[in-house]
């Protein structure tokens, strides 16, 4: 992992690392509020762990999303459930370090599974909090609105597909709007648990948690009502920023002049369709 190469870490990558509180090996990027770079995370031998994660603060108060999502849910969800994913990811990293030190990787399958589940849970929730705002709701504008119309036909069609995707999650999981860079399109995914059915290399723009811990205290088993209320707190400005950052990282779109910009795109040598 590079540590001080700004060219290798475009702004959106830096912002993402900050949003998930990744403190591993990125101290040199810490122009703002990155946590201390793992220096205070020590193993039994007082050697610093190469990487660790921290729970990010919410960008608003616990009661800020009421009446749509009440304070009790937000506090328990953030300080309890999200913290548990952070702790689980760090525990898995520590176990991996111990395996490496011992040069003994027996049982690594379970550790890798724990890391995938908990790190995905951490990232999903970090985006989920920022996708919401007290003055949210309504519809997107600008380039995001155009992209939604291009990919789904209309905002209403997008919202209907996203809502049904969330409602139909089996047991626990997420609905997510992704930017898919190969096709340069938006797609809606349905994740089971925190990490199953993930879309490789696609960038999550909008995430909706439909684990029962996200709504049961307020809505009991009425998941559909929770989803309807959640649309009132969607922060479309945040979603638009994520979309624009993902597009910038991809490089030129179909409409752009590839001859002039092809070298900037990591996808320039790949087929532009799936
Ligand atoms: Fe959750």
TrEMBL record:
Essential cofactor(s): Mn(2+)
Composition bias, Polar residues: 261-274
First-level EC class: oxidoreductase
Gene3D superfamilies: Fe,Mn superoxide dismutase (SOD) domain (1.10.287.990), Iron/manganese superoxide dismutase, C-terminal domain (3.55.40.20)
Pfam family name, one: Sod_Fe_N
Residue ranges annotated for the Manganese/iron superoxide dismutase N-terminal domain, each copy included: 52-133
UniProt keyword annotations, A-Z: Manganese, Metal-binding, Oxidoreductase
Leader peptide range in chain numbering: none
PROSITE patterns, A to Z: SOD_MN, TAT
EC number(s) reported in the record: 1.15.1.1
Family: Belongs to the iron/manganese superoxide dismutase family.
UniProt-recorded name of the protein: superoxide dismutase
């Amino acid at each position: 992992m590079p540590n001080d190469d700004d060219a290798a870490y475009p702004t959106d990558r830096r912002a993402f690392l900050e949003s998930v509180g990744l403190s591993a090996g990125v101290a040199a990027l810490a122009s703002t509020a990155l946590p201390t770079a793992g220096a205070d995370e020590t193993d039994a031998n007082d050697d610093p762990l190469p990487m660790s994660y921290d729970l990010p603060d919410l960008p608003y108060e616990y009661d800020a999303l009421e009446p749509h999502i009440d304070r009790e849910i937000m506090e328990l969800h953030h300080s309890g459930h999200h913290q548990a994913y952070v702790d689980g990811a760090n525990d898995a990293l520590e176990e991996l370090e111990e395996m490496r030190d011992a040069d003994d990787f027996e049982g690594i399958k379970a550790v890798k599974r724990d890391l995938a589940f908990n790190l995905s849970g951490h990232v999903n929730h970090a985006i989920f909090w920022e996708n919401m705002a007290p003055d949210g709701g309504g519809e997107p504008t600008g380039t995001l609105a155009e992209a939604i119309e291009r990919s789904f036909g209309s905002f209403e069609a997008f919202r209907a597909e996203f809502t049904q995707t969330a409602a139909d999650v089996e047991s626990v999981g997420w609905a997510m709007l992704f930017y898919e860079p190969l096709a340069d399109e938006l797609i809606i995914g349905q994740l089971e648990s925190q990490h199953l059915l993930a879309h490789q290399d696609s960038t999550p723009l909008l995430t909706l948690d439909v684990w029962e811990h996200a709504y049961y205290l307020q809505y009991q088993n009425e998941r559909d009502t929770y989803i309807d209320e959640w649309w009132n707190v969607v922060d479309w400005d945040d979603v638009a920023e994520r979309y624009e950052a993902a597009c910038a990282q991809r490089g030129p779109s179909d409409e752009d002049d590839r001859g002039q910009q092809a070298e900037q795109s990591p996808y320039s040598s790949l087929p532009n369709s799936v």
